[in-house]
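Researcher: Structure prediction, please.
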Amino acid sequence: MKTAGKLIPTTLIVIIIVPILQAQPGSSPIGNLIPKPKSCITTGGVCNLSIPAAFNLPEHDRLSEKTVRLTLGKIIHLAPKPSTQPPAQGLQLLIGNPGVPGDSPEAYSLRAEQNRIVIMGKTGEGILNGLRTLAQLAIDGPIPQCEINDAPDFSMRGAHLCYHLIRESLAYNVPNFQSLLSQIDRLASMKVNTVLLELESMFPYQKHKKISCKIAFTPDQINQLRDRLDTHHIQIIPLVQCLGHAYNVLTHDEYAEYRELPDYIQQYCPTNPKVIDLYMEFVDEYLQFFPHIKQWHLGGDESRMLGRCPRCKAKEKELGRSRLYVDHVGEIARRVAAKGITPMLWSDMMEHHPEAMDLLPTESLKIVYWNYDLPTWPRGYAAPMFINKGFKVIGSPGIRFGGTGTELSVYYPRALRGLESLIPRMYCDGCREIITTNWMKGSPHESTEYGSAYAAALMWNKSISRADFQSRYAGLTFGLADPGICNLHETLSLWLPYAEPVKDHMPNHLDRFDLSGLPFSQKWQRYTKPGNETKVLQQLKDGLTAAEQTLKILEQLHPRCSRGKRYFDIIELSAECIKAKARLALALHRERHLEQKENADTDILRWSSEIPAIIGAWKAAKEKHHRMLLETGFKPCIDFVNELMFEPAEVEFLEKMGRRLAGKISEGKKPSQVAVAFLDNPGPPYKRGFVHGSTFKEEISQAIEKWCRGMKTASPYRLELKNRMFSYTLQNFPYIIEELQGIADGSGKSLDEIFWLNIFNAVGRIRPLPACSSVIRRGTDQNLYLGKTSDTNEDQRKMMLLRRVRYNGRDFYVVGWVGTVWVEMALTSTGLAIGGSSAPSQPGQTGEGIGQHLGAYPVLFQADNVEQAIETLTRIKFAGKGKIFGLADAVGNAAILEKTGTAQGVIRIRPQQIGILGVNDYQTPHMRQYNSERSEAMLRNCQNRRDAFDRWLSTTTGADGLKSVTQFLSDNPFCQTGQANMYTLSAAIISPVSREMRLTGLPPSKKKYVTWRFID
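Model: Predicted structure follows.
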């Protein structure tokens, strides 16, 4: 086609429909491009492209319609068929245009104007790179008008895909097939053009079927994998080990004759003439699936067993050890080259034996120089040595390697520094090919995506800074303008005792698949040695701090994160697992010291109260770790690594220690019988509910079994009451329903079950059982002390829960039951104390209101003192039983508030009065009419407690408030153990002024309390 006297080159033109999405505040598509273009200028405005996107394909080039759709299809709606002629407006892709700057065949230019986008490239690869840039520009909708001129620094930009599997049940977290395809799509989007494919026993060998493990990819999957890589124009380089690391073959007895030594599976014998023939059979099997490959990796690294067998010893003695290596790999390299394929070899063995380098086929063999951190690498920089010998050299940094850190995250400090140091250095030495390794470990494989993206960015544009990359990565991956999420990868880069790398479980590093070396019992012995424990405790504390900081930042970023949910969730998973493991390990070491300490009752009670939540969080983390990794991994592998990281012996040992400690102060009772469990439960409603539910999953199931049986056989009348309570709560207190939904999801129960658990005793006529008491005492220091008993049966003790809730500026302790947001007693950081007791119902209630045990929860989010609490409760309609609240605050106000339905009465403490009491009947004149529901026995019990209270006040004038209340709650009739149908389950003494809650770790008669403060 001619225009204005000029010949327009063969043209591919695409008109694109760009979805108009809401861009993230502060986020720029130009500023989010990975890799960073060499030149990018914005010209103002956005492109207005035709809908749908018509396109035509270039002649005389292999850029296919399938490739265009795979590159753009998830972002841009393309027309059903390519057009035959370039449209007047839209996207124009020009192949072979001389206007593209630079010499690279992958160079491209992109110009986005008001009504069209023009991408020019010297080849289809150049156009494809422009399409990848366009896909990133369009990810948030409007494409900015701009001009981009771009070309890569490195011609080979490779990524290593590794499957270290010799059998299906190994502690390696590797991507399943669909996840592998997604990983390839992600690499392609960042202009990676080569994949080093190390499948080991995941390859479906046909002649050597024994080598393939039970979860190996099928031939059809390998064909799909090849086609996906070909469609992306990604070069495939198989890696099959030719000497060392031959575990996947030599583990089988059928191949024992090829071993260097009979009992070791690490290395082939290089003097066994059958080994090379066997290896070439492997090459031929790969060529059946990948007939067009141009390069092949022989492996050859870490061949640590040279000269062990008698035949090899003899050759070593005659010719030297290096000849064992070069004669073997050199012959294989020559045979591979004879098939028209360029062989590659890892560099390390020749770094150790440079004297034999000349014996290798320099003309055909490439050296892959691997160095994962130039500043600290044990071997000196050796790339020039190979270059000077005439070898073509490929630089190879690493993302996941060695045994540093933990298998719950990826250790990034060395990896990032290694990328930054090696890639530019190799460029300076004339190298233009890079393959970044990513060795499979037990840590989540998606955690390496951050490092893979940084490697892709540096391989294209070696001069990009880490700060620039992080800003782009946060924007492209998560839709965040704040790059802070990137730093969390390094925050979680730490050594964590009891969650060591898989490598540390190997008793013999010549067999990297024997992980029997470090069961929990051995770790415990090692880490509790006097010379080790101090360091171990600091590492655990550092891990806990890092995890908590990470989770706090993620909570802040979550509402602004518009994409990348899986990667976000993986960071959160790592933090939650590190936190759970560190807390449990710290509890183990703390118990060890408590056992050796005298007069440690209070510390033991505090420790015992924290253990249920620590164990629950450990179990919840284990379950989430297994569930999430299973989504993109292989079940046998995930089962193994999950058990390795969360070894049941840890919890069993802690529980055994807990029973032993509890016995020191409570005559052999279990920890659940000596302390009310504690849960620090911050975050928004759903989040804190989910943590609550997942942490106490087992206890919630028991509570539902005990208290929700009636739900299945409930009458229509009671179900209607429940539905009305739900509607009222949802309308007036939606955050309560959000939190209950979180509890439901976390515990694996339905919202219906959890709501019933919260209101089961409010959906019908309640038998007049004995219940709780609240006593408020003014001490000689004029400060108020609120004493509160919780009276029920002993089975319920293990269901009681003390929570610390911190959200939106509010901070309070509240005691209730697992699975509920009940308020038995509470203390806010502002000094408002609440104690709740059951009371008679108001006749004629229809369920219009909030279940009475939920009624004080909104108060904790709204009130700072007694008067505000009274006013808040006035606006809340109760359903079910009534409640009698003891209220006290830090400024000296106190009251007993009587509440049922819409009726409410208040008894305030007078200025000179030293105490008031609330039990289970009403005393204000207009509320007494509801006492008719109480039985004579119940009323008599209430009066007995009231009489005891009066006697106590008259005999303790001028007494210390705290000591006096402690004594009062410890004696009959308030400590009701032994009375008919009466049991004082727990008690609290709350000091509003000092903002302390003292909670009994045993029945009050034992007078053993744990103090909880807001500074804790």
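Model: The longest strand covers residues 39-46.
Researcher: Thanks, that helps.
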